[in-house]
Amino acid sequence: MANWSQTLAEKKKHLASRWQDQRPLIILAGDSQIEYGEWYNLFAGARAVRNCGLSRAKIADVTQLVLAMGDSHPQTVVTMCGINNLGADENPNNCLRTYGELLEAIHTHLQPKSVLVLSVMPVRETVVDRASHKLNMVVRQFNIGLKACCRQHQSFFWT
Questions:
Q1: What is the residue extent of each domain of the chain?
Q2: What is the DSSP letter of 122?
Q3: Structure pTM?
Q4: Among candidates 127, 109, 120, which has minimal Cα distance to 150?
């Protein structure tokens, strides 16, 4: 756990400095799906893209990263996380509450023009792996709850 605490602290320290780019800023926050994405290439250099993803991050970790960011008023914040919580058999309703705290932190700390919440992607299923089927059922239910959470906040968009 000490290694994770150190990894998280180092990432927070890195994010504390403001992003130095005059183009409209898009912040991507989440777990490994965000960290390892080719986001800059996707936007073809038209936007300043700050990748704030962290592999193995849980929802509360992403909230800590958001609160550590030195940026404010980005054009858009894109977030995707939760599989690390759900994969660890955490209660999906607790995960939804924690995600609500993340969205509140994004709204109050970063104050973006818009927030795009990406659904949690299912894991690869195989015929013999019953655990993956069970996890994907939980992911589907979580995504339904996440969509409802986003609908409660008019500034959050879910996809």
A1: 2-158
A2: P
A3: 0.91
A4: 120
CA-to-CA distance for 100 and 4, rounded, in angstroms?
A: 23
Q: How far is CA 157 from CA 7, 16, 89, 148, in A?
A: 30, 26, 26, 11
CATH code linked to domain 2-158? 3.40.50.1110
User: 115: closest CA among 127, 123, 130, 104?
Assistant: 104
- What does 6-28 look like in DSSP terms, one character per residue? HHHHHHHHHHTSPP--SSPEEEE
Beta carbons of 52 and 69 less than 8 angstroms apart: yes
3-class SS of residue 135: helix
User: pLDDT tens for residues 39-83?
Assistant: 888 888 788 999 999 999 999 999 999 999 999 999 999 999 999
Contact 31, 83 (CB under 8 A): yes
